[in-house]
Amino acid sequence: MAQPQRAARKEPKSTGEVVSELWGLVKDYGTQEVVDPVKNLGRFIAYGSAAAFCFAIAGLLFAVAFMRIIQVEGRRWFHGNWTFVPYVIAIFFCLVAAFLSYKQIKAGKHGDDSSSAKAKKGKAS
């Protein structure tokens, strides 16, 4: 049977080695817990901003297309002094879409209708 070897005694580290090792650990920890999450957050914000810009452009194009459809198809109703009505209708639908989006965003932040809130309520009963 092999006998366990005793660990060789290490000489105590000098103060300079301990300080440099501590500095390296603090620097690595700072990179891991601060710098990396900030980089990830920046990436998240960049992609989110790009998506918001694309959705805004799409919404604008849909509004103009909707207005043009009303102008072409409603030519017999909206002529003369009534040519402004398709613009008003398109703006109204844009405002309704913005309001519904706002309500949906606000409802999601409270978490009242989320499945996790319902699961918590079920466990409490």
Would you summarize the structure shown here?
It contains three helices and no strands. The protein is mostly helical and about 120 residues long. The two termini are about 60 Å apart.
Q: Describe it for me?
A:
The protein has one domain. It is 76% helix and 0% strand. It contains 3 helices and no strands.
Key terms:
single chain, 125 residues, mainly alpha, 3 helices, rod-shaped
Radius of gyration: 32 Å
| Helical residues, percent | over 70%
Instruction: Note the total helix count.
Output: 3
As residue ranges, the low-confidence spans are none
Shape: rod-shaped
Task: Tell me the number of strands.
Answer: 0
> DSSP strand (E) fraction?
under 5%
Largest sheet: none
Distance between the termini: 62 Å
Task: Summarize the helix and strand pattern as letters.
Answer: HHH
Q: How many structural domains are formed by the residues?
A: 1
Write the layout of secondary structure elements.
Elements: H1 15-73, H2 85-110, H3 115-124
